[in-house]
Amino acid sequence: MEISSSLVLNAIVAGLLLGGFYAAMAAGVSISFGMLDVTNIAHPAFIILGSYIAYIVNTWWGWDPIVISIVLSPLFYLLGLVLYRIYYYAFERKGQQSLRSLAFFFGILFITEVVLILIFGVDYRLVKSVYTETTWQVGEVDLPLRLVVPFIVSMIMIFGLNWFLSHTFFGRAVLAVAQDQFALRLMGVDPIKIKERAFGLSIAIAGVAGAFLIVIQPVQPSIGRDFIGLVFAICVLGGMGSIKGALAGALILGLAESFTATFFGPSWAPAVSFGLLLLAVAFKPSGLFGR
Amino acid sequence: MHKKMSNKLFIPLVLGVAVLFALLSVAVPNDYFFSAAYTVLLFIILSTAWNILGGYTGYVNFGTAAFFAMGAYSTVVLYKLTPGMPLLLKIVIGTVVAGLVGLGTGALTLRLRGVFFSIATLALSVVVFTFVVNWDYVGGARGAYVIAPRDVPFGFKRYIHFLYVVMVFLSATAVIIARAIETSTIGRGLEAIRDDELAAECCGVPTLRLKLLSTTLSGALMGMAGTTYPYFVSYVEPASTFNLSYAVNSIAMPLIGGMTTWVGPLLGAVLLGTVQQVVQVTISSAWNLLIVGVLLVLFVTLAPEGLMGLWYGWRKKWKEKGGAK
Amino acid sequence: MSDTNELLMVKGVVKRFGGFTALDGVDLNLKAGERLGLIGPNGSGKSTLVNCICGTLFNDEGSVKFEGHEISREPAHKRIRRGLARSFQLPKPFSSMSVAENLCVPILYAANARPGAHHATPAQAYEQAMEILKKVGLAHKGHEMSGGLTQVDMRKLELARAIAAKPKLLISDEAMAGLSNSEVDEILELLFLMKEQGIAVIMIEHIMRAVMRFSERVAVLVAGRKIADGDPEAVMRNPEVERAYLGE
Predict the structure, then answer these.
(1) Interchain contact C76–B (C-beta under 8 A)
(2) Bigger pLDDT: C96 or C5?
């Protein structure tokens, strides 16, 4: 296969656009796993749920899927609150986190997938909006709008989230709860409420990312699992609870996948994100007795 | 501490039970029984294997499907390479291959926190799946055919009878190994790691070494479960071999049965496995999976000690009531 | 002074956490059977030093020698098998096991590994565990789950578990914190048992009367540095030590 500059350029652009979207998928995990230390491996399930809800509303009423997801994000937020409450009462309070909470979230992931299969079947679903069919041409580079629009909205969301976490009281309380719960309590803030809301936020972001996903590619219930490695790899690569780090990790991953798909074929792409995850996890500097 | 049956007694007992079950292959006329039994026995091995790393050591492995598939695909490769190789040898080789991968995964990730190990096992599933899908020798995504030999070994009437008996003895092996670990010094060390890894290390337990042992053994036994699978289904393709139901079941069955002893996984596999066989036939396989998932979540939140845990709890209450009188 | 006299030789140990230096060149020696009290204000690095000696942390610079062997790069379990043992400030029982079963772990893994040791089976280990529990006054709780013990019993279990490893050196990390007077005495009794068996002890405590009663020697750690080391009375009268505790 000839390696033309146009091919490389397109791979780079596609990788960056994809990476921007991946950041939206992983930002929630940076919060739940990186900051709150909750290993929510069911995070992709909520992304897929967001995709399907966007699909339903888009198919019945024709609204734009991304707009739908933003409007409906409070519902996901509430879902996150409820889920955290259950997690907290069943596991965190008793200090039995690791094994049982992992099994719990795995169960949730699984149930979500099976319920979606029961309702929608295993066929791929797509959405249609004004921009999903259009592709801009800038020189040799293809800019499919179905990649560009989610990228832009995602970037707004990521930078907005980053600003929110560093400049509002709630945001800084979330960062604080990751470091020193006791000090937070002394300030009269209930760390449990903070964690609950932060978790709700992470699920709300997942829902919106779900809309991005179904704009970018067709969706079916089982693909959630493929993204587990992706979102956790990005979180780990990005240094755990850092949104900016997650963005950097996401861009790296997007580029890696794009190049793999272009030069080795798309069937190898899932192995890239998981392979990177294995490496990131294996060579993480902090060992067993520290974070 | 109640006296435990010595292994010298336990092993012949289990083998005796196995022989009884094996004899059923002559007594039962209905072929469907053997298919269903094969599946339940498969889950007995997978649950018991999973529990060595999960229940005994405290590390959650989500990649059961990867190890299972490695056993299965190792058989496929050997079937193509050396068609004349006896099944028993294929089983041994598949078990060793899966064990080595378990060792490798462990070596990469066990120095880190438990959650990273678990996430890595998820990754492992996808990576192995992707390799298999792209590997033409075993048929890639299209799959491969494995035809059972026409002459059934040991004079059984049908090949499924032979497979059934093999699985009965493999299950017995898995249970014997699990119990041997559980009652040995190694078992104490694994329990200590599960309860508090740092304290275990400071009591002289070589935590890394034991964890690697646990991962290797667990992976090997899971692979062992998969080695006869190609002959059971005749057509081996990645989507069904890497089915998520293996991962969910191998976690749900020990959890529901009880993770602290060898009895729990066996109990969970028999109960849940039988229920699934019934539901699959009467309703559908999707509902089947939903039931497993819901049971998993319910048990892990409300009764994490599993059925055995509930049983021990009730027994303790009866004893206390009896003592108070 | 010959090395072979010293059971433990800590020389120039430095430990940093990012930009913060927790231990800044600490020296500490201990002879077989000696009883050393290690005191110092909170955050002075006592626990970090214990971690570096036992192997739950690795020191950045300096050396740690046990019976003449350099152990600073060995994993914790190897050091325990040589004859080091420690209790944890916040007790870490194996909560799914009974009290006696807790002791089986160090018996099977530490004591068993000593050269010339008789290899106990799990059943024999259980019997040995009950023997040790009798000595420390926990035999009646032997069958109980270790998760639901009282504070003082938890501390006793911590120490009993360390004793079960048949150590030559035991480090007791604030075993008496938060206990009542009589409970402190119970723990002290336990530690004096060590003296009878010829086990060297490093006692880290804030409860001064216990330190003074128990120690043959006292060392003081302040801000990662050792500022005093010697006879207990003399050390307590040291003006620098007074200043460290009472401020300028």
Answers:
(1) yes
(2) C96
Provide, as residue numbers in chain B, all residues whose Cβ is less than 8 Å from the Cβ of C108. 185, 188-189
CA A135 to chain centre: 25
Whole-number average pLDDT of chain B? 88
Q: How far does CA B139 lie from the centroid of its chain?
A: 26
Domain-embedded: residue B249: no
Q: Where does the pLDDT of residue A26 fall: very low under 50, low under 70, confident under 90, or very high at 90 and above?
A: very high
How many domains are there within chain B?
1
- β pairing state of C35-39 and C20-31: unpaired
Cα C184 to Cα C204: distance, rounded to the nearest angstrom:
13
Pairing between β-strand A135-138 and β-strand A141-144 as defined by DSSP bridges: antiparallel
Domains located in chain C, CATH noted = 3-92+161-246 (3.40.50.300)
Q: What are phi and psi of C35, to 5 degrees?
A: -115, 110
- pLDDT: which is higher, B239 or B205: B205
Considering only alpha carbons, which residue of chain B is nearest residue C81? B204
Contacts of A208 (CB under 8 A, 6+ apart): A24, A50, A66, A69, A70, A73, A76, A157
Provide the CATH number for the domain formed by A5-282 in this structure.
Answer: 1.10.3470
CA C157 – CA C136 distance, rounded (Å) = 9
Question: How far apart are alpha carbons C245 and C243 in whole angstroms?
Answer: 5
CB B73 within 8 A of CB B236: yes
pLDDT tens digits along A173-227:
888 887 776 677 777 778 888 899 999 999 999 999 999 999 999 999 988 887 8
**Structural domain contains residue B87:** yes
Lowest-pLDDT choice from A157-161, A285-289, B203-207: A285-289
C-chain CB neighbours of B201 within 8 Å are: 55-56, 75-77, 80
Task: Tell me whether residues C109 and B205 touch, CB distance under 8 A.
Answer: yes
Predicted TM-score (pTM) of the model is 0.89
Among the partner residues B187, B189, B260, nearest to C109 by beta-carbon distance: B189
C108:B1 CB<8 A:
no
Separation between Cα atoms, residue C231 and residue A10, nearest integer Å: 76
Answer whether A26's CB lies under 8 Å from A234's CB: yes
Q: Determine what percent of chain C is predicted with pLDDT higher than 70.
A: 97
d(CA B39, CA B229): 10
Helix, strand, coil shares of chain B, percent, nearest 5, are: 80, 0, 20
- State the first-to-last Cα distance of chain C, in angstroms, to the nearest integer: 37
Instruction: Quote the minimal CA–CA distance from C191 to chain B in Å.
Output: 18
Q: Using CA atoms, how far apart are residues C77 and C43, in angstroms rounded to an integer?
A: 26
Residues of chain B contacting C100 with CB distance shorter than 8 Å = 1
Mean residue pLDDT of chain A comes to 85
- Domain positions in chain A are 5-282
Chosen for mutation from B50, B57, B60, B211 (greatest number of chain A CBs closer than 10 Å) is B60
Instruction: Write the ipTM.
Output: 0.91
Domain assignment present for residue B209? The answer is yes
B248 within a domain of the structure (yes/no): no
- C94, B184: Cβ pair inside 8 Å? no
